[in-house]
Amino acid sequence: MVREIKEDGPSDVNLSKAKAAILEKRKEMLKTNSYWNMKLIGMIYWGNNVDRFLDLNNVINKITVKDIQETARKLFDGKNEFIGIMNP
User: Fold this and answer.
1) 88 in a domain, yes or no?
2) Measuring CA to CA, which residue among 80, 63, 48 is closest to residue 17?
3) Which domain holds residue 50?
């Protein structure tokens, strides 16, 4: 699946579904105090961009199949791998 995303990107249908799910979740989160608290702390304490927060729906809607494909190529280039051993 990762190889497919790297080569072809997600399908338009899957990308649309993912965007819709993210936007719906954000819409629900906007109703909670914890979300606003987290965002305000991020903006005040960490200097997160206020404009990006206010325009997040447009930022999400602008994501393209090519954006996902390029990101997958960067993240899954084989340089970010590690071997972990779990002991019972």
Assistant:
1) no
2) 63
3) 2-75
